[in-house]
Design a protein that fits this description.
The chain is an all-alpha fold. It is 69% helix and 1% strand. A two-stranded antiparallel sheet has the order 1-2. Helix 4 packs antiparallel against helix 5. It is elongated and about 80 Å long. Keywords: Cytoplasm, Nucleus, Repeat. InterPro entries: ARM-like (IPR011989), ARM-type_fold (IPR016024), Armadillo (IPR000225), ARMC8/Vid28 (IPR038739). It comes from Scleropages formosus. It is found in: Cytoplasm; Nucleus.
């Protein structure tokens, strides 16, 4: 290998040149070779983008004369290029990759649809992609709903796109009006954990501060069981933490939107204790931050919940630990973890302050207990 970046650019140029070969078989082989070259190689990805591979790949992807195999391989390569840096995603979005891939979803071939969806998912979950691009064409959401039944992969990618792109009350209503609840609820029973999790995340973003959605969710049955009971089961201690936390968020948001009473057993006996568990030392930092913030949000307007929380599992004492974080270096053997935790320590303190504020919002006795700890 030659020194410097010259040889990378030379090979990259060779890959791009092959995309213009008059022989379709050579073009296909060129795309397959490109796919193998870019896996895990961000330098190569950046070079190919700079050299103009993206417009050509998109052209081949949309060309009616291209074979299905070629179109699918193009979608796979584009998905791989999207896996690189935020700059890569910006370049792809600027080349109008989103409308091209959405158009591709009208094809009947499942493998091609899955490749397009996988790429769309990667592009949409990036913070640099404007989520509004999902809602520009009114035919897109109903079409995505219709693709949910095609395979576990389509279910995973589509629900992940929905949960990431649903950012405003208007987005919530578009999804709601196109049958998001009926279409996504059965996915909570999927044999695939990834599908279950993305479906659960969809419900948390749909219910957040939305009374209409939350009121509808309360009456939904999944396999003959009330949706709220499905969420309660997902908060059991033997479930993965991410699932417990997201299910607790769903019930919290439904409660705050007025669809579940604060004295309902699913809140007092299940959601509240689950969120308190998330604040304990055993949990990872991000989990503790999310647990504390969600708990603060749940209790904010309700004195009785604050009273119950203040005597649950030594919550007030646990929170005092948040301010001493990280406690001692010896307790954290792994330096990498320490480094990571130090970066998040301020988030943890903020979350604890929110929770303290919530706990003491309406009751002098609780405030005294909190002050005593500080």
């Amino acid at each position: 290998i030659l020194e410097g970046g010259k040889e990378v650019t030379a090979t990259s140029r060779h890959y791009v040149d092959r995309l213009f070969d008059p022989d379709p078989q050579k073009v296909l082989q060129g795309v397959i070779d490109m796919k193998n070259a870019v896996i895990g190689n961000n330098k190569q990805k950046a070079n190919l983008i700079v050299l103009g591979a993206v417009p050509r790949l998109l052209y081949l992807l949309q060309q009616p004369t291209s074979s299905l195999e070629l179109r699918t391989e193009c979608a796979v390569v584009l998905g791989s290029l999207a896996m690189g840096t935020e700059n890569n995603i910006k370049s792809l979005v600027d080349c109008h990759i989103i409308p091209a891939l959405l158009q591709g979803l009208l094809c009947q071939d499942l493998k091609f649809i899955e490749a397009c969806l996988r790429c769309l998912r990667t592009v949409f979950i990036s913070p640099v992609t404007p989520v509004q691009l999902l809602f520009t064409d009114p035919t897109v959401i109903p079409h995505l709903m219709s693709l949910l039944s095609r395979s576990q992969r389509t279910q995973e990618y589509i629900t992940q796109i929905f949960s990431h792109c649903c950012k405003t009350p208007e987005h919530q209503m578009i999804l709601y009006n196109h049958g998001a609840i009926q279409n996504i609820a059965p996915l909570l029973m999927s044999p695939s954990y990834k599908v279950q999790m993305q479906a659960l995340k969809c419900f948390s973003v749909l219910a957040y501060e939305n009374t209409q959605v939350s009121m509808t969710l309360v009456n939904v049955l999944v396999d003959g069981e009330l949706l709220t009971q499905v969420f309660v089961k997902m908060m059991q201690r033997d479930r993965p933490i991410e699932m417990q936390l997201t299910a607790a968020k769903c019930l919290t948001y439904m409660c705050r939107a007025g669809a579940i009473r604060t004295d309902d057993t699913c809140i007092i006996m299940k959601t509240l204790p689950c969120l308190v568990r998330m604040c304990s030392k055993e949990r990872l930092l991000e989990e503790r931050v999310e647990g504390a913030e969600t708990l603060a949000y749940l209790m904010e307007p309700d004195v009785e919940l604050q009273r119950i929380a203040s005597i649950t599992d030594h919550l007030v004492a646990m929170l005092a630990d948040y301010f001493k974080y990280p406690s001692s270096v010896s307790a954290i053997a792994d330096i990498k973890r320490l480094d990571h935790d130090l970066k998040h320590a301020h988030e943890l303190r903020q979350a604890a302050f929110k929770l303290y504020a919530s706990l003491g919002a309406n009751d002098e006795d609780i405030r005294k207990k909190v002050r005593h700890r500080l």
